[in-house]
Design brief:
Elements (H helix, E strand, L loop, with lengths): L6 H12 L5 H11 L3 H18 L3 E6 L2 E6 L3 E3 L4 H11 L5 E5 L3 E4 L1 H16 L3 E5 L3 H9 L8 E2 L2 H7 L11
Parallel strand pairs: 2-4, 3-5, 4-6, 6-7
Antiparallel strand pairs: 1-2
Helix pairs in contact: 1-3, 4-5
Length: 177
């Protein structure tokens, strides 16, 4: 198998190999070239590390129409000591999207660091002429949002469909729905 010049084709081939999606002949051809070529082997190894790093992320970012939805893959606490706090921050701040919905459905606890993170994400969205909204906070998280009056600044929804529809309506007053 010759070295592919197009980087996208090369990445797709490497990805197919690492995810074991190549047929037997293609896998053998791939191995004979990529494992013998030092440059290709290094590229293969870097891609393998990237895929494994992405797979271990606790934050899932998906697009629904023109809204970026940020969710946690497992139950989390957004506290000063949680690694998910930094993952969420990195995930949102990397986005240049103007419409972001953070699903708090799997957040069992939030502290001042978590609230600060939400405000940082909100400020980032506003700086990009966008909007950030929250989805599905549990009773404890909702109580903290109310006590800190964050719910008066960031709209909160309990139905994903309604939250997504709200991005299409002209802005009304802020608050919980």
């Amino acid at each position: 198998m010759p070295h592919l010049q197009d980087p996208l084709e090369r990445e797709e081939l490497i990805r197919g190999y690492l995810l074991k999606r190549l047929d037997q002949a293609a896998a053998e051809s791939f191995e004979s070239h990529y494992l013998a070529c030092e440059d290709c082997y290094e590229e293969l190894r870097a891609t393998q590390l990237l895929i494994s790093g992405l797979a271990s992320s606790q934050v899932n970012i998906r697009r629904l129409d023109n809204v970026t939805v940020v969710q946690f893959r497992a139950p989390v606490q957004l506290t000063r000591t949680s690694k998910e706090l930094n993952e969420l921050l990195a995930g949102v701040l990397e986005q240049k999207d103007t419409k972001v919905l953070i699903d708090l459905g799997r957040v069992s606890r939030i502290d001042s660091a978590g609230l600060g993170l939400l405000m940082t994400c909100y400020s980032h969205a506003v700086r990009n002429q966008g909007v950030l909204k929250l989805l599905n906070p549990n009773a404890e998280v909702q109580k903290i949002l109310q006590m800190t009056r964050l719910d008066a600044v960031v709209e909160t929804y309990f139905d994903e469909g309604q939250a997504l529809e709200s991005f299409e309506r002209p802005p009304e007053g802020q608050g919980s729905n």
